[in-house]
Amino acid sequence: MDVITLRSYAKGIEVLIELERLDEAIAHCRHILQIYPKYVDSYRLLGKAYLEAKRFGEASDIFQRVLSAEPTDYLAHVAMSVIREDEGNIDTAIWHMERAFETNPSNQVIQKELKRLIGIRDEFEPLKIRLTRGALAHMYASGDLYTQAIAELHAALQEDPNRPDLQVLLAEMYWLTKDITRAAEVCTEILETLPHCMTANRIMAAVNKTNGNSNASTVYLRRLAALDPYTTFIESPMDDAALVDEESIEIKKLEWEPNH
Q1: 76-125 pLDDT, tens per residue?
Q2: Mean pLDDT across the chain
Q3: N-terminal to C-terminal alpha carbon distance within the chain
Q4: The domain 144-227: what is its CATH number?
Q5: Boundaries of CATH 1.25.40.10 in the chain?
Q6: Which one of 1.10.760, 2.40.160, 1.10.10, 1.25.40 gives the CATH number of domain 72-130?
Q7: Do 62 and 46 contact (CB within 8 A), yes or no?
Q8: What is the homologous superfamily of the domain 1-70+245-260 according to CATH?
C-alpha cells in the first residue's frame, strides 16, 4: 500500500466523487474509517458518495452522523433535504433546506430550492424567502455583531429549544464575547445530547484550559482528535486544525480493485 497524507487522501476521494467513481470513493472512505472511526470529513465524503449513487438510506444515516458532530453543516442539511424530498417528506425537506439557508442566506441556489419546496407544499412559490431569526443571527455573527446575534439566538431558542445548530452558534458568540461561564453552560447542554459535537468539545477544552483544569481539557481534546485527527497537533483548543501541516498524519492508501 502507498502512504499518503490524510488530508491529501480526502482531497483525492473528492475528485473520485466528481468523476463519478463512486464505488471506489466509498471503499476509500470506509478504509479511512477503519483507522479513524469518527473522522467527520470521511463521513461527509462517504455521505456525498452515497447521495450521488442515490443510495439514500445509507446517505441519510451518514449525514445524520455528520450533523451530530457539526449541527450547522451546510452540505449535510442540503443532502438531508434532497433525501427527505425523495421520501415524500416535504415538511422535513423544507426544514433542512431552511437550515442550509440560515447559514448562507445570500445563496441564490438555496433560495431557489427553498422556494421550490415551499411551492410543492403550499402550491404557490413565495416571491421572497423571509429571513428567520436563525438567518439574522448568522448574519450578525458574520459581521462581528455578537451582541445582536446573541439576542436573536435567545429569541429563536425560546420559539424552538430543540435547535442544537443555534445552540452551537450561541456558545461561539458567548466565547467570542469572553462570557466563558455562559459558553460552558450552553456547551454542557449540547453535549448531553450530542457528545461528539465538535464546537462544544472545542469550547469546553478551551474553557477548562483557561480555568487551569488541564485534566478536564484533555478529555475534550481527545474527543476532538477522534473527530479530526489533525487537532492532535494544535497548540490551543481554539486553533484552526486546517493550518496544521498535512504531513503530520500519513495513512496507507487502500489498493482498490473493482468488484472486490
Answers
A1: 999 999 999 999 999 999 999 999 999 999 999 999 999 999 999 999 99
A2: 95
A3: 16
A4: 1.25.40.10
A5: 1-70+245-260, 144-227
A6: 1.25.40
A7: yes
A8: Tetratricopeptide repeat domain (1.25.40.10)
Judge if pTM exceeds 0.90.
Answer: yes
- CA–CA distance from 215 to each of 12, 27, 97, 178, 225 (Å)? 37, 37, 40, 22, 15
pLDDT by residue (tens digit) across 17-35?
Answer: 999 999 999 999 999 999 9
Residue showing cell 438510506: 57
Question: Are 202 and 224 in contact, with CB atoms under 8 Å apart?
Answer: yes
Residue type at 156?
A
Report yes or no: 27 and 256 within 8 Å, Cβ to Cβ.
Answer: yes
